[in-house]
Amino acid sequence: MKVIAHRGYSGRYPENTMLAFEKAVEAGCDAIEMDVQLTKDGEVVVIHDERIDRTTDGTGFVKDYTAGELQRFNAAKLFPHITEFQHIPTFDEYCSWAKQAGIETNIEIKTGIYYYEDIEKKTLDIIRRHGLEDKVMFSSFNHVSLIRIRELMPEAVCGALIGKMGIGNAGYYCSVNGFSCYHPDYEGLTREMVENCRQYGIRLNVWTVNSMEGLEQLRDWGCEGIITNYPGVAKRWLLGGEK
Hints:
By secondary structure, the chain is of the alpha/beta class. The protein has helices spanning 18-26, 67-70, 91-101, 119-129, 143-152, 170-177, 191-199, 212-221, 231-241, and strands at residues 2-6, 31-38, 44-46, 104-109, 136-140, 158-162, 181-184, 203-206, 225-228.
């Protein structure tokens, strides 16, 4: 079962920052999950919320700032005891680092509130420029974005993100839409859903798993991956619990 670091090592470091990504790799994660949005000047940047208020010392929407303007804000607002300043990374910066680190990446396309123009193409262009096609997968709550990704890159691995309610017949749904993975909320996942995905050959990467109970249950169910805020803890437990 792969350990996927949710927004990097976000349980202990400022989420979606280079520091959180570096610490996740140091902790032995198998992959990193991160989020991309578009700036006013059309640059792909790494941040979870459409607004910058929660995680930075700025205010307003990502789409209303240029990439240069965004990098002036402190993305370590929630972790002042860890670091004085972390900038909002560009996706190009992240990919340059990921290429050197050799790490796999789960890229969440954030098109749930704003459908950013050409975000899928812009994201793929950067991935191709860095030669990371075989090191990435894509997820989104907006499944239209995943369909667009596959139109532009037919070999792309895509995972349908779903909230707590889940989706009936998820394995079939993913298979007919060309999604090889299902990314459900752990709190709504049942054994029946897992078995339905198995029936259609769909892999499961489950979020956000931060408890020992969750780790044990998903390992027993044979899920392929867990997305967690504490990749170091999860990795050590899995290595210690292997049979």
